[in-house]
Amino acid sequence: MRLTLRALISHGRVARKMGLGPESRINMLRNILTGLVRHERIETTTARADEVRFYAEKLVDYAKRGDTDEKAMKMASFWLTEKDLVPKLFNVLAPRFETHSKGYTRMARLPNRENLDRAKMAVLEYKGNPFPPLYPVKKDNELTLINQLLRGYREDRAQQLATKA
Amino acid sequence: MAAKGLDKCFFSLRLLRNLQLRNERLVSTSACRLVDDKFIPPSKPVIIDKTQSVASLRRFLSPEFVPPRQRTNPLKFSIERKDMIRRRKVLNIPEFYIGSILAVSMADPHASGKANRFVGICIQRGGKGLGATFVLRNIINNQGVEICYELYSPRIQSVEVLKLEKRLDDNLMYLRDALPEYSTVDPDMKPVPFSPTGEVPVNNIKVRMRPKPWSKRWERPKFNVQGIRFDLCLTPEKMEHAQKWAEPWREYDMLKEYDTSKLEEHLLDEFQQEMSK
């Protein structure tokens, strides 16, 4: 059983209803996508982040086609409302994801919003962004007793192997 | 016994003398009855068309082979395609487009001769897989008739293309609201020869419509109709009013895009391989 968000969307309809109508939905997604391209890590509600994720990845696919491609330029200028981000998309984001074939974004859940609505929040980021990682790698404390003993054991073993060989 | 032997030598003598076709045929059939118990048909001439190379032949993949964008298992589509190719090996379904004139003969127990033949313009091709259909339209005795045939139905005995051409749209449903002269097809039309290489001729005809109301509002941009002469039936204000339903964001909506070019190539290769087996 697919437990993803997509499974909740009825009868194969892939697009959620957002805002006042299809035009409003596209405009909202445009604004969120522009914010994502500018800041590379944004927090919104989970549903919006999930919708934008698809468009963000498709936009990067178009950007990979290059600056000179007419369709790519039209798409970029439509989706990015702030036009100073269009060169950023083509010159920074596209080369960054040249080696990746898909999966340019990462989404993680956040605690619910503090307002009265207690909305489900999520953070959406492009991979390779300059901020500290969302899932920080927790290193064990070297100075605990057990870790010090283990370290000593590892060093003794290494010494023994070196004298044997 | 002796008579049989005499006939045999007469047969060989006559062949040596190179008589006319009628006599030869008479002789050969009679001789075959006598010479062998089994009838051996003469060998068919093999025509090798060296003027057209395989590469120049027009590659056409019927649209019902392309699977729709769904969550179903691709195994279902591959099994369906196998069945479609099996049917196509028995019945030749030619390539045709919307706007071509076809003649279909379908088995009918109640018709004289057990088959009925219908000639018409193809106005719509719908469905994918084995349920693929096409609608033929014609006007018979001042009555417009549209018949929806299933391509892979076992009742269909033959499909012939009388005239192969394309039109400006993929859906000619607006012919219902057009003047009847654009939907009439002569049932006894002779097939127009067309070459299997080169481009399909596009008929850029712009159809004149009957006065409004129409069955659908064809001027609206969602139908994207290129083949109607709107300047004769609608004022520019009405055309502008119709543009209110334009939805300009639709062409930029990446979710709605379904790029089938690579899939189509793959399917075409598979189809040609299977058909040549």
TrEMBL record, chain B:
<keyword id="KW-0496">Mitochondrion</keyword>
<dbReference type="Pfam" id="PF01245">
    <property type="entry name" value="Ribosomal_L19"/>
</dbReference>
<dbReference type="GO" id="GO:0006412">
    <property type="term" value="P:translation"/>
</dbReference>
<dbReference type="GO" id="GO:0003735">
    <property type="term" value="F:structural constituent of ribosome"/>
</dbReference>
<protein>
    <recommendedName>
        <fullName>Large ribosomal subunit protein bL19m</fullName>
    </recommendedName>
</protein>
<dbReference type="InterPro" id="IPR038657">
    <property type="entry name" value="Ribosomal_bL19_sf"/>
</dbReference>
<keyword id="KW-0687">Ribonucleoprotein</keyword>
<keyword id="KW-0689">Ribosomal protein</keyword>
<comment type="similarity">
    <text>Belongs to the bacterial ribosomal protein bL19 family.</text>
</comment>
<keyword id="KW-0809">Transit peptide</keyword>
<dbReference type="GO" id="GO:0005762">
    <property type="term" value="C:mitochondrial large ribosomal subunit"/>
</dbReference>
<dbReference type="InterPro" id="IPR001857">
    <property type="entry name" value="Ribosomal_bL19"/>
</dbReference>
<dbReference type="InterPro" id="IPR008991">
    <property type="entry name" value="Translation_prot_SH3-like_sf"/>
</dbReference>
